[in-house]
Amino acid sequence: MTKFFGILSLAALMLVGCSGGDGGSNSSANATPASSNNAPATGGDFKVALLTPGPVNDSGWCALAYEGLMGIKDDMHAEVANQVTKESEIKEAMRSYAQKGYNLVLGHGFEFNKPGVEVSKDFPNTVFVSSSGSETSKNAGTIRFYLEQSFYLAGAPASKTRTTGVVGMVGGPEVPSIKSTFKAFKAGAESVNPKIQVLEAFTGSNDDVAKAKQAAEQMIQKKADFLIHQANAGAQGVFNACKEGHAWAFGANTNQNDNESGVVIGSAAIIAKPAFLGVAKVVKEGKFDGNVIQLDMEHGQIDFVFNDKLKSNLPADAVAKMEEVKKDIVAGKFVVPKDKF
User: Fold this and answer.
1) Which residues on neighbouring strands pair with residue 230, listed in sequence order?
2) Which of 103, 152, 235, 301 is deepest in the core (most CB within 10 A)?
3) C-beta of residue 171 within 8 angstroms of C-beta of residue 326
């Protein structure tokens, strides 16, 4: 992966407060530090908890957060904990970790943003950071992964490769962050073929493999020959349906190109480990000020990775088109659309 953003640059981002929005006016690489009253944690006293909406062995969204947590543990010798937390349990779990003296509580998903801000008011010595969202407080902020960039790139070769003129998107819960990536995929597909039909379905679950497979099968029956997902553990159902229905799939959140189904032709990936590590270091130094941090392709935290074993199934001009747009995104010449949430 090229152009890793690096811990020092991310730390600079974390020191600038930001109010709401979609990341367009958020922190930047040229940000200047702001003051903070948070006391730094001492060596062996630093404790970090991770809350995920599903199991961390999902090879996707939750797995990448766990990788980040392990990076914090190994690099900073921190005491860490993690648990799967359903929406009704979020505030209770956050309060529990704060009461136990945890310095940082990471909630991995849009649904953790508002609860983190609310709970933060009662626990000023704990920092709460969610992966997505726009609400902040002095000791609560968010990481905004600009995953729309790689979803847009996936849409281009999907639209150009085959002749059915139909592609599909399978999501879990219908939340703003997922809907925004799907809009970007659709925009990427339509940029190549304005007449392409883009199907969309939400299962309502982060980890229901059967529902995800059923949704994918219905799309394939409607002649969809490329599918992308935002289904966490349910993604395996999408991959299985593609294998049985002779369609291609795109991985999401992590590099899923090696999935045993053999149908993942490329992945829209987040490079999460340095991001989480950067947040933790700023918190430990007592320099955190609640803000929204955009992590993007320009700084190496977002990428689209082709499966070298399957890439030859795509027309050379489709790959070339995607690579050209990718260069423009990295250079800041093209801005991928994204929602405010």
Assistant:
1) 171
2) 235
3) no
Among 212, 273, 266, 261, smallest CA distance to 6 is for: 273
Q: Reduced to 3 states, what is the DSSP secondary structure of residue 180?
A: helix
Domain boundaries, position 220:
148-269+301-330
HSE-CB of 339 using CA atoms within 13 angstroms? 15
Q: Give every strand in the sheet of 127-131, ordered side by side.
A: 79-84, 47-52, 104-107, 127-131, 140-145, 292-295
CB 135 within 8 A of CB 163: no
How far apart are alpha carbons 266 and 303 in whole angstroms? Answer: 10
In one-letter notation, the amino acid at residue 14 is: M
Task: Please state the domain count of the chain.
Answer: 2
- For 41, which DSSP code? P
pTM of the model: 0.81
Q: How confident is the model at residue 166 (pLDDT cuts 50, 70, 90)?
A: very high
Rounded CA-CA distance 228/26 in Å is 28
Residue in the block written with tokens 């997922």: 178
Residue 182 lies in a domain: yes
Question: pLDDT: is 15 or 142 the higher one?
Answer: 142
263 occurs within a structural domain: yes
Exposure b/e, 104-116, CB count within 10 A at least 16 = b = bbbbbbbbbbbbb
